[in-house]
Amino acid sequence: RIARRLDVDFLRTYLGAFDHLMVRTERSLRVAGEIDLPVFLGGDWALRLIADTSPDETPNPKRAIIVLREFALEIIPYTYVQKIERLVLGLKEQGWEPVLLPFCPEDVRNAKELGLDKLAPTWEHWWNPRRMKQIMAQSGLVISVGRLHAVIFAAPSFDVPVCSLAPPLKLPSGKKSISKIDSLCADWDIDQFFDVEELLAAAAEGRLRPASREKVTAAAQRLDESIAQMKAIMSERLEEKGLGPAA
Question: What is the pTM for the complete model shown?
């Protein structure tokens, strides 16, 4: 208890020195309130990332984007491989065209090490987030397996169903899913699944859905407001130092 109290006191003192603090989820807002830390509920920066418009990409409503987050090999059981195989093959049986869309080089390497790259084409655009956002927006389904920003990138595409599948392995945290993804999905009404068969059943029955237009739009608007506040603070500080417009 003493150690935790010291941690909280340090955190409050350190973060309290900033002029503006923005969090992206309701859960973070509640946690900040518990330690009496004034924060602003905004949104993730990636909400304002503009999707590419490359003519090289073709819209395909049957394309199912799957984003597999990398994990250390020593914590990945063979059942993980089996369940991802079941996900990909199950989608194919339903007429989907699965594509693996890694978010970093480690995602690419991990899929190859596990042989999952043989199940579906891998599209490597991890160095171009705008292109990745375009691909998601032009697909028919996005499934994130452990990657937070796969959910965030897909959420503003309000015609494209997006969902989160909890990684089918024992997470280092000991939890069944990743907390930051849980929080975002709760805020934006994004479906989460803890079982591959449940996800496949929802896909077969047409129950998969996009993120909430109202809630994602509100988050983007809060982000804009937070950015405006930060710009105002920076302008004020520059003027105080004689470096701003008033100099």
Answer: 0.91
